[in-house]
């Protein structure tokens, strides 16, 4: 049973704009809560679609577009139900951090959560136990945040147990979304993301990456607005004139596709995101800037492919991700 409570009635027709409250007994507020914005717009029969933003608190395009929907949509424009959660990790968003300042946890790495755990774990448990069961489809809006340059993409999370029909519905959502890349992924083996948890429940879902570097991209906002409208139109929950999606390149992250820093230092990349590289090609130089006589260390790509993401920070520690590669998905290959 979740500790989160709300005045919002998920089953009421019409438009409700309010908050969900997570109790938090802090030094400055013994009986207070974390207020998380929550809106439900329902009209008649039709699919229930959940859209979340702010899973990471340094990613802003999603919250901006979800709040636009909250302000602009009226019940008569909806056929079914929209559940809109623009700031899922509200403490992290207020701090402009990927992780929550309350417990230093990443909401995208704690699903299915724990209703009696830390604040971040409780938020995940509320979404997983209370909201997911109400939904027919799920859209999770991300960007690269502070540490990543990343190609515009819609991710489809797959597992060995995933119903093929659920995968096809998710891939159809990704096609309607119309991002440059559709990344079919198993989250590098980590099931604790929101879309990984949704996949385990058989809930069709996509996770979008529509910006980078902890900033607000005008291009990213425009593309997110158009893409979300297309998906909602595709699912039948709204009826809107849309610009047709361009074909999306379907790719996957191969084994060894995550280039990890071999040591501490400052990394000088020699390529940009979107570049095609070969296995063994020089990726860049790892410098020891405080040791002027030290020769830079050559860092090579272990795999070939397209550079999907790249670290924004020059400084790096051993084990940090410097770049992630994707390869074209062959129907005979497993993601």
UniProtKB/TrEMBL annotation:
Keyword field: Hydrolase, Metal-binding, Plasmid, Zinc
Gene3D superfamilies cross-referenced by the UniProt entry: Zn peptidases (3.40.630.10)
One Pfam family, short name: AstE_AspA_cat
GO molecular function list: hydrolase activity, acting on carbon-nitrogen (but not peptide) bonds, in linear amides; hydrolase activity, acting on ester bonds; metal ion binding
Superkingdom in the source lineage: Bacteria
Keyword Transport tagged: no
Annotated SUPFAM superfamilies: Zn-dependent exopeptidases
Residue stretches making up the Succinylglutamate desuccinylase/Aspartoacylase catalytic domain: 46-235
Residue runs in coiled coils: none
Cofactor: Zn(2+)
Signal peptide: none
Protein name stated in the entry: Succinylglutamate desuccinylase
């Amino acid at each position: 049973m979740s500790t989160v409570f709300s005045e919002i009635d998920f089953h009421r027709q019409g438009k409700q704009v309010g908050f969900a409250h997570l109790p938090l007994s802090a030094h400055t507020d013994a009986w207070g809560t974390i207020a998380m914005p929550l809106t439900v717009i329902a009209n008649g029969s039709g699919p229930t679609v959940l859209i979340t933003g702010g899973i990471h608190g340094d990613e802003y395009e999603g919250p901006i577009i979800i709040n636009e929907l909250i302000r602009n949509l009226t019940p008569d424009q909806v056929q079914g139900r929209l559940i809109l959660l623009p700031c899922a990790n509200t403490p992290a968003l207020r701090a402009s951090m990927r992780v929550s300042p309350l417990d230093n946890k990443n909401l995208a790495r704690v699903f299915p959560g724990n209703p009696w755990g830390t604040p971040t774990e409780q938020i995940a448990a509320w979404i997983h136990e209370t909201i997911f069961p109400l939904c027919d489809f799920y859209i999770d809006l991300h960007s690269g945040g502070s540490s990543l340059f990343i190609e515009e993409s819609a991710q489809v999370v797959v597992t060995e147990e995933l119903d093929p029909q659920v995968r096809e519905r998710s891939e159809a959502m990704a096609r309607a979304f119309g991002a440059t890349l559709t990344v079919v992924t198993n989250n590098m083996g980590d099931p604790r993301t929101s879309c990984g948890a949704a996949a385990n429940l058989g809930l069709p879902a996509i996770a979008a990456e529509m910006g980078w570097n902890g900033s607000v991209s005008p291009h990213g906002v425009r593309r997110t607005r158009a893409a979300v409208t297309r998906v909602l139109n595709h699912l039948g929950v709204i009826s809107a004139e849309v610009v047709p999606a361009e074909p999306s390149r379907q790719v996957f992250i191969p084994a060894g596709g995550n280039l990890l820093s071999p040591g501490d230092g400052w990394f000088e990349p020699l390529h940009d995101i979107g570049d095609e590289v070969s296995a063994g090609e020089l990726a860049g130089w790892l410098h020891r800037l405080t040791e002027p006589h030290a020769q830079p260390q050559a860092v090579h790509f272990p795999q070939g492919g397209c550079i999907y993401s790249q670290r924004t920070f020059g400084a790096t520690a051993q084990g940090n991700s410097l770049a992630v590669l994707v390869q074209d998905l062959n129907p005979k290959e497993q993601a």
